[in-house]
Design a protein that fits this description.
It is a single chain. The chain is mainly alpha-helical. It has one domain (2-132). The chain has helices at residues 2-15, 24-29, 33-59, 64-88, 98-119. Helix 1 packs across helix 5 and helix 3 runs parallel beside helix 5 (98-119). The longest helix has 27 residues, at 33-59. The chain is globular. The N and C termini lie far apart (57 Å). The model has no long low-confidence stretch (mean pLDDT 81).
Length: 143
């Protein structure tokens, strides 16, 4: 039990905060570092699938210019994500067995943030800050 608590604590330190939708059974049952890495991998894959779903939905809203610019922005975000991770975990240092878990948790957090950014383009997005909604009527040229 102490190992599981230590793994969860390590995950929290790596990611800042575990995601709200985290599979608590996976984390609660993690007995080894490799188990925690698998939990982080599962969460990251789910978040990445959601990002791709939202990204496709946003692309479907606009004209060719919007799609070109959004693809360009997404490619830039991917480069930023990878460069950020490389800065956090530079090559040539020893990180023990926590690195794979922390990598996935950092990617998870960044992917969730990007998904929220993209969701602001969707017409059904609700946000109390009117400047945080980039709905089609505001920013996306019609096809």
């Amino acid at each position: 039990m102490r190992l599981a608590a230590a793994l969860i604590a390590g995950a929290t330190l790596c990611a800042g905060v575990k995601s709200a939708g985290a599979d608590s059974d996976c984390w609660a049952n993690a007995k080894k570092q490799s188990d925690a890495t698998l939990c982080a991998e599962k969460e990251y894959r789910e978040a990445d699938a959601e990002l791709n779903r939202v990204y496709r939905a946003v692309l479907a809203l606009g004209n060719d210019d919007f799609k070109r610019l959004m693809r360009q922005a997404q490619r830039a975000w991917l480069k930023y994500r990878d460069a950020h991770f490389a800065a956090v975990y530079p090559e040539g240092y020893y990180y023990a067995t926590k690195r794979p878990m922390c990598e996935r948790l950092i990617l998870l957090r960044m992917t969730q943030a990007r998904t929220l950014e993209l969701q602001r383009f969707l017409p059904d997005h609700v946000d109390e800050d009117i400047c945080n909604h980039y709905g089609p009527e505001d920013a996306i040229p019609k096809q």
